[in-house]
Amino acid sequence: MKWDLVRAITGKDFKEFKKNKYILYTLVSFPLVFAIVVPLSIIGPVLALGGLVVNPTDVPGPPSLSEAHDLNQTGLDNLQHNLTQNETLMLHGYHVRNVIISNIILNGTWVENSTLDYVIIRHCRLTNVTIEHGQVYNTYLENSEIHYGEVSASWGHNVTVTQDVAQTENTIADLVDPAAFQVQEFMDIMTSTIMMMFVLVPSATPAIISSYSIIGEKKARSLEPILATPISDLELLMGKVFASFIPTILPTFGAYALFAILMQALAGATGGVNMAFTPVLLIGVFVLAPLVCVLSIVANVFISSKVNDIRAAQQLGSLVVLPLIFLFMIPMTGAATLGPAIVLVMALIVGIVDVGLMWFTLKVFNRENILVNWS
């Protein structure tokens, strides 16, 4: 393939686009609307409510508990020995270590390296603790197990919970603070939504220019000299693809840069995190979006080579965006969030489709039919 011929075709199409200022305005304004106005409309309500209080990237640490009273097994036995038959030991503000105990209520207590049975625990810190039967509320757990009981509004890490409600076992690797979980869920949905916006922009704008690439030149009588030259079909189509790809993807990248600056200014309002630099958004903008852009361009060039009316080509070319709109609605509705692995898989699939569609377009491209039969 002769790249100088590809550059010549690309340069010629650039000159054609520059003559139509409305196309240039659309190529610039469309990414800005999606990348700036729409994200602000999503983040705006959050700002109006005072922002997100919890940093979604950090799981809160254990509560600050008093360590005024240290208890071991002997001290605990002495406390229980002084109780009457109907009394239950209630501990508050203790640091309890290396004990085996049952029938106790803990509130604001730090327990380490212990086994508890039939306990009620509130606002505590548990480290290396096994709970045989118990109810745990608003408690930080670390490297612990709960075999039977109830866990509510608690967080920590490396916690195994087995519930006997329906005789089923559920292993939970990480219990997170409920407020932090809600913030993280919100941030995931918002990041996925904005990522799909940046993917949608370069998939929609090529219909404006690539659908014109062959039909428009045919109507302007500037296509015949090119088709009559010894330039190959691959060189011609590659020139057409680059002529649409460059003015489409550059405004998208520029809008992303403005979005990153804006998000940096608003980072304090979104938990101190600049959403622009999350892995999902980086992969979406710099990997998935260019591949989707190529897919849209090749599809529109193919349509432009098969129909002889510009309006019909643009209408058919706009159908390429429909599958992406349905995909775009998934994170918008909160039905699912897109992780880095999923976005990479999507990019791989789109890349394979790009190659296949380019091969098919070359196979069915018929310059003789365009020259002879199109009016």
Count of distinct strands: 8
Give the averaged pLDDT, no decimals. Answer: 75
Question: Kindly, what is the distance between the CA atoms of the first and last residues, rounded to a whole number of angstroms?
Answer: 30 Å
Q: What's the shape?
A: rod-shaped
List the secondary-structure elements in sequence, H or E: HHEHEEEEEEEHHHHHHHHHH
Uncertain stretches: 53-59, 165-174
The largest sheet is: 8 strands, parallel
Q: Helices and strands: which structural class?
A: alpha/beta
The level of helicity is 55-70%
Radius of gyration: 31 Å
Kindly estimate the percentage of residues that lie in beta strands according to DSSP: 15-25%
What does this protein structure show overall?
With 375 residues, the chain is of the alpha/beta class. It has 13 helices and 8 strands. It has helices spanning 3-18, 21-48, 73-81, 178-204, 206-209, 212-219, 224-227, 233-265, 279-304, 310-318, 322-333, 340-364, 367-373; strands at 69-71, 89-92, 94-97, 100-107, 110-122, 125-137, 140-152, 155-161. Strands 1, 2, 3, 4, 5, 6, 7 and 8 form an 8-stranded parallel beta sheet that branches. The chain starts with a helix and ends with a helix.
Helices and strands, with pairings:
Blueprint: H1 3-18, H2 21-48, E1 69-71, H3 73-81, E2 89-92, E3 94-97, E4 100-107, E5 110-122, E6 125-137, E7 140-152, E8 155-161, H4 178-204, H5 206-209, H6 212-219, H7 224-227, H8 233-265, H9 279-304, H10 310-318, H11 322-333, H12 340-364, H13 367-373
Parallel strand pairs: 1-3, 2-4, 3-5, 4-5, 5-6, 6-7, 7-8
Helix pairs in contact: 1-8, 2-4, 2-8, 4-9, 4-11, 8-9, 9-10, 9-12
